[in-house]
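Reopening this one. Same input as before:
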Amino acid sequence: MPGRSWQERPEAIPIEVSALPQGVTSFVGDAPFNLFHTDLLDALGDHLPTEMLWADCLCAVSSHGRDRSVYKYGLISWHRGVWTGRGEPSPTPYRRCDGCGRIFGPRDSAIVARQVHGRRLVADAYGSLLIRGDLAAELDLVRRFPDLRLFKIPVVDEPKDRWVLPGDSHWKGELIASPFRYYACVRLNLAGWGRTPRGRAWLRSFERDVQAALARNDGGVILHAKTAAGIRWLAYLGRDENLVMAAILPGLRSCPEPRALLGIEGQRLGTDAEPTPVDIEVPE
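Same output, byte for byte:
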């Protein structure tokens, strides 16, 4: 990625690929470079974000030189792009690269309305394009580009991830982490007992009580609750291990089926390292 000096005075930097991409959009390996076919860029025309710089994508088609391809890629200073991970709190932390200064973190959960400023086409902090549905329909993009796939990202009035990022009212130049730093996942085997009236009533009561306990004094939130192949997965995020376990354990002790609990997995979250699993012993 371009370094810190580029962030202050950005300029278009061509890249070279060993073979032509496929499709109207593509990307370069693990690098955060999104490639766009020039036909698509022409269709978007004056709607393209003015804060983006478009650079040539060169293709090394022979040993005699490089040819300019029909793709370009967009560059944007990290502090000018829209953040797309502003939905519910995530166990994945944001982090800042010591080299380029760019901020990396969760994506594609929600964007904050004030970052869009009413525009119908914007770029996120990674150089991806975000288009409003009415503009995509007006330009007839899906019909004109059959391999183009659009997916929805919610727009929220205020960020829900509890981080302070560039563009937020409390931003002072440094990341401020979410207060929710502990993650826990409960796995319950619902086979048989979980489908009985008594089992369903206990599960509803357990999930309601845990959510209420975490909500007290802003102690935490439920991330998701889903059932697959008879297994109930419940994921929570809270301020610390004690608060989260204090909300979960009392209800588990009252479970009508002692063999229902398959396990609890806990992780202390950090901003500069992968979460480390923590074994939790559940009293019988």
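So the earlier flakiness isn't reproducible anymore. For the record, Helices lie at 4-8, 38-44, 113-116, 133-138, 141-144, 197-215, 241-253.
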